[in-house]
TrEMBL record:
Ranges for domain HTH cro/C1-type: 8-63
InterPro entries: Cro/C1-type_HTH, Lambda_DNA-bd_dom_sf
Lineage: superkingdom: Bacteria
Organism of provenance: Clostridium lapidicellarium
Name of the molecule in the record: Helix-turn-helix domain-containing protein
SMART domains: HTH_XRE
A Pfam match: HTH_3
């Protein structure tokens, strides 16, 4: 799965979350959040579950894109 980075950035702005704060809430490193947002790393189970915990009102379809889908 790939991250819908524009949607995540929008949610971060709405909720006043920096990358550091988001990383802490999602229980992942701030480097992981940085790499996922920049597209240097895909989204694994730990990151996906952490983001869904932070943003429970969002669906998998709004936060993530399947690989190979534009």
């Amino acid at each position: 799965m790939n991250l819908n980075s524009s949607k995540l950035k929008e949610l971060m702005e709405i909720n006043g979350l920096s990358q550091n704060k988001l990383a802490a809430k999602a229980n992942v490193s701030k480097g992981t959040i940085s790499r996922v947002l920049s597209g240097k790393r895909g989204v694994g189970c730990k990151v996906a579950s952490g983001l869904l915990r932070v943003f429970p009102e969002e669906s998998v379809d709004t936060l993530f894109k399947k690989k190979g889908v534009l």
